[in-house]
Amino acid sequence: MPPFSRLLLLALLAAGALSASTTRLATDKPIINFRLPDFTPEGHRSWLVRGSEARYAAEGLVDLSELNLTIFTGDADDKVETLILSPSARIRLGDRLVSGEDSIRIINDRFEASGSQWTYDHAAKRVSITRNVRVVLHTQLKDILQ
Question: What start and end residues bound the annotated signal peptide (predicted)?
Answer without folding.
Answer: 1-26
